[in-house]
Write a structure and sequence with these properties.
By secondary structure, this protein is α/β, with parallel strands linked by helices. The protein has 3 domains: 80 residues, Orthogonal Bundle (Helicase, Ruva Protein, domain 3), CATH 1.10.8; 163 residues, 3-Layer(aba) Sandwich (Rossmann fold), CATH 3.40.50; 59 residues. It is built from 16 helices and 11 strands. The strands form 4 sheets. Strands 3-6-9-2-10 form a 5-stranded parallel β-sheet. A two-stranded antiparallel ribbon has the order 1-11. Strands 4-5 form a two-stranded antiparallel sheet. The N and C termini lie far apart (51 Å).
Length: 343
């Protein structure tokens, strides 16, 4: 069997935003993006490294009413702690040593458009307070200035970290987490949607062959099978890098990567490595078990998790956690608290 790289098997709507695949998991993500994009609500994109969080943010912007305004991006983990405040809010001349001229920050750049803050979990606690104020009041001051500047910005954030656990560990402000998590979107890892790998592989082979002025239009079936069977701990980004290297070393029109890289991956994640969703589900289940499946009240699971009862109910629905008959009976025997929304 031969896989042709130029086959058009991906959905038009997905591909038009650079998101390749037709799996049910990916379609679900795109449905969520389609629902929230036309609003101005804050979106929190979660997922492992390399799952395409920036592409999702781009799609949200492209489908929004702000599509003709700027989409400004900032990776909070890539900027030194001492400079990120200036990057966000700008500074006046003389505000600090080396500030020779006035500079506007990313919030001003994004006025009327969208600001995408990647790796928001790496933002220092003292800056989280200032970010919360901007979200609430839509205004801020440049460093070295007392004049407030009003902005109209839609905020989209992303992280590979478990913010709920960080809140529990007092590493992330709970009030900011609730503000950012108005509409959470969880991107699935590539190992959970292997049916998307053939389309991704064909797309990347064609892309890199074009860049390198090569003609590669055949992917052998054994090569495709090896890619589909691999776990891809680095997700789509790792697949993309693997294919780029494969295109470079291929000499003819057949894609011939070094499959030994898949058999003996250097940085493969441990087999028991949990996804963000798995860790969240375990955390919620543990709280429910510790409280005998009592959801509300002073001693219920919601209070233990530091979230509202309705938030926990919505989270349980999203994670597929339901109250069985034994838990319902135990809850009624121990607490009069209701959980009727799921009953």
């Amino acid at each position: 069997m031969i896989w042709k790289t130029f086959s058009q098997e991906r959905g038009h709507d997905l591909a038009s935003h650079g998101i390749i695949g037709k799996s049910q998991l990916l379609q679900s993500v795109m449905e969520q993006i389609g629902v929230v994009a036309p609003t101005d609500s804050t979106v929190l994109i979660q997922g492992e490294t390399g799952t395409g969080k920036e592409l999702a943010a781009q799609a949200i912007h492209n489908l929004s009413r702000r599509r003709n305004a700027p989409l400004v991006k900032l990776n909070c983990a890539a900027i030194p702690a001492g400079l990120i405040e200036s990057e966000l809010f700008g500074h006046e001349r003389g505000a600090f040593t080396g500030a020779l001229t006035q500079r506007i920050g990313r919030f001003e750049m994004a006025h009327g458009g969208t600001l995408f803050l990647d790796e928001i979990g790496d933002l220092a606690l003292e800056l989280q307070v200032k970010l919360l104020r901007v979200i609430q009041e839509q205004e801020f001051e440049r460093l070295g200035s007392t004049r407030s500047i009003r902005v109209n910005v839609r905020l989209v954030t992303a992280t590979h970290r478990d913010l709920e656990q960080m809140v529990q560990n007092q590493e992330f402000r709970a009030d900011l987490y609730y503000r950012l998590g108005v509409f959470p979107i969880l991107l699935p890892p590539l190992r959970h949607r292997p049916e998307d790998i053939p389309a991704l592989a064909r797309h990347f082979v064609a892309q890199y062959a074009g860049r390198l002025n090569k003609v590669i239009d055949v992917i052998p079936s054994e090569t495709m099978d090896a890619m589909v069977a691999y776990d891809w701990p680095g997700n789509v980004r790792q697949l993309q890098n693997f294919i780029e290297h494969g295109v470079i070393v291929s000499r003819g029109f057949v894609f011939e990567p070094l499959l030994s890289q898949l058999r003996h991956p250097r940085n493969a994640a441990p087999k028991n490595n949990k996804t963000l969703e798995d860790a969240t589900r375990d955390h919620v289940l543990q709280a429910l078990e510790d409280t005998k499946w009592v959801v509300g009240g002073r001693h219920g699971a919601a209070a233990r998790l530091g979230i509202a009862r309705t938030t926990l109910i919505a989270k349980m629905r999203r994670l597929g956690i339901e109250l069985g008959r034994d838990q319902v009976n135990a809850k009624r025997a121990n607490r009069p608290q209701t959980f009727g929304a799921l009953a």
